[in-house]
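The following block was generated as part of the benchmark described in Methods. Ligand: iron/sulfur cluster.
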Amino acid sequence: MTPLIEVRGLSKHYPSRDGKGLVKAVNDVSLTLSKGETLGIVGESGCGKSTLARMLLRLIEPAGGEILFEGENLLGLDKARMRRRRRDIQIVFQDPYASLDPRMQVGDIIAEPLDIHGVGSKAERRAKVAGLLDLVGLDPSAGKRYPHEFSGGQRQRIGIARAVALEPKLVVLDEPVSALDVSIQSQILNLLADLKLRLGLSYIFISHDLSVVQNVSDRVAVMYLGRIVEEGPAGDVLGKPLHPYTQALISAVPAIDAEERRQRIILAGDPPNPEDVPQGCAFHPRCIHAFEPCSSQIPKLCGAGHRAACHLVNAP
Ligand code: SF4
């Protein structure tokens, strides 16, 4: 079966701040997502996951690679065809304060994608907006109010209503709950799970928070300095992590159950700096298992189903 989206060798490079080199924000990333799946992409700040999210919608133009959506290469589409394709792929941003225009009424914000794509008559669009507000748990009267009149969680509900207005097939969720209080996070995660079932959505869920990704994902990809270092079914990646970086991330997630308490792996060395990616395995200066080839050879993502990019895992 054709995957809903298949990304092959996607890269994005920026000039470094001193103008002398290149920052490889996303470097040769390949991944697939089947219809109805949620793929969680996790990694620390600066690992390239938000750049990757924006490239999937061509909000940022990739430097190379392919994005096949239902088999069609999005990077080969002209502006008009890409605009039509955007109906199928929508995004929810992290910051529900910054992502809504403060001068627009909420009803107009949600109707905007319908207006842009010329969906229905004015009356039909009004009815659709009322239905969308109800779908995300807001009173239809909210349409006449402005974003500043709502809490953070309510604003994210508005952002989600706008994202599903065009009945997309894929929603890219870029840190959708990171700006919210923990008590509100679970309400938004429940809403997303409910909408996924009711609307037949597929998600790419980007987060720095492994415990959030764990709750929502069918499959998980772990990014480190622009590359995917581990990928596979969520239960395998999070239950039996192969890559030392994933093992360290998981060891840092607090476990409530005393039996589950793990020994925390303290990452040595500097935090990742995309302007200064180490040679070989980019993780080697912080890896407690680094050995001879790690500082000179880039490990390939190997394995069947559950894959890792690590010389230790892939040693013959
Ligand atoms: Fe550690 Fe080497 Fe594996 Fe990189 S390739 S994660 S440095 S053991």
